[in-house]
Task: structure prediction
Amino acid sequence: MFDVDGTLVHRGPDGRGRPQPGAPEVLERIRASGRPLVLFTNGSHVSSERIARGLQEDGLPIGEREVLTPVESAITYLRRYHRDRPVLMFVTEAIRERLQRAGIPAARGEEAGAVFVAHIDQTDFDEMERAARAVRRGAPLLAGSYVPGYAGANGIIFSRGAMVTAAIAKVSGARPKVLGKPSRAAVAELRARLGLPTERLAVIGDDLGMDIRLGQMGGSRTVLVRSGISGQVELHRIPERRRPDAVIDGVAELLEWL
Ligand SMILES: [Mg+2]
Result:
């Protein structure tokens, strides 16, 4: 499993990904060896198929079924634990359609059996209040991600999804359950998509708290790539159990191991 941003690509101000040196070759080499592979990004603004097509255009050899996002783990999670319950969604139009296609019923208001927050650009207080009331009555508060923001071309871009989640959590007193990286739901999604135990998986990413943590939750081998967000982290300063199994400067180094 590869993370995308900071690992396989760096994104420019135009939003296009520039593949990191060796990234296409590494993916081809893994595919040629017969091993399954998957990319897991915490992006939840568009469908995973659309993300895959964008990466193809950027020059990465990736199939539409080879990208996972928190939306995919949310679909699996909702089907498994809250089947047929209407879900109050704080999502983009594209994701609303994706959830609808997956058969997840949308709730209008307080009758919601679950609340799901992903990437969102706009919302209003009435909607958040309905969600908070549903959560107070026992609906789980599910979030694609709950980190404060992500790296943009000009510094941090605050996560509006996290803002909405935090607002609902505050007034309802509920603790959000994260379904993207790192979470049990994401580990379950990896297992389901790859069809093998996550103990047999290598998780490769640039974010210690997100990718390496996800790998450790699933008992996977973990490889930290120093080409992104945790590039400067001093590993001897963090607890041993949180350290990755291996550290590389860029994904091109994986070619020697494959
Ligand atoms: Mg990353």
User: Anything to note?
Assistant: Residues 30 and 258 are 7 Å apart (CA to CA).
